[in-house]
Specification:
This protein has about 160 residues and is an alpha/beta fold. It is built from five helices and nine strands. Strand 6 and strand 7 form a beta hairpin. It is globular. It starts with a strand and ends with a strand.
Length: about 160
């Protein structure tokens, strides 16, 4: 079976929001957003709000737990150009460790929280666990970079 066409894999603690719909979907050429999140996959309100953004962007959207994403992503149709989004570096690492063929990760919004420090000028705050997850993904050959919007500066991790 052919590898799924994951056109963008993004870490964004807001998952799907206007910035994703208005900027990243078009820039990536995606026609399907896959939200891989154990909570959102089972939360009707979150799914409804994110679906509105996907609908307004003219793309489909699916909601899967992390394990279901690992289990089904290889069955994607070649016509599906997938924008894969997760909340945390740990979630992305789980997918990669589970065999999801992700070669590059865009790190978007990781908001300030207690115990996290600003990583660079972009709106990304990390702790030691986040850094360990980045390092583990890089050790598997994954290219990681921070970029808030498609036309904003890229910061290599």
């Amino acid at each position: 079976m052919a590898e799924p066409d994951i056109v963008l894999a993004r870490i964004d603690n807001r998952l799907v929001h206007g910035q994703v719909g208005n900027s990243w979907v078009g820039a990536s050429g995606a026609n399907l957003i896959v939200v891989a999140d154990d909570v959102a996959a089972n939360d009707a309100m979150q799914k409804s709000l994110m679906k509105m953004t996907a609908d307004s962007s003219g793309v489909g959207i699916r909601f899967f737990t992390l394990q279901k994403t690992i289990d089904v992503i290889a069955k994607a149709s070649p016509r599906q150009h997938i924008f894969l989004v997760v909340k945390t570096p740990q979630d992305m690492r789980t997918l990669i460790d589970g065999g999801v063929p992700i070669h590059e990760v865009n790190v978007g919004n990781m908001h300030e929280q207690p115990g996290k420090k600003k990583y660079c000028e972009a709106h990304v705050y990390v702790d030691d666990e986040d850094i360990a997850d980045f390092d583990a993904m890089k050790a598997k050959g994954v290219n990681l970079y921070i970029q808030v919007l498609p036309n904003s500066r890229k910061y290599d991790i």
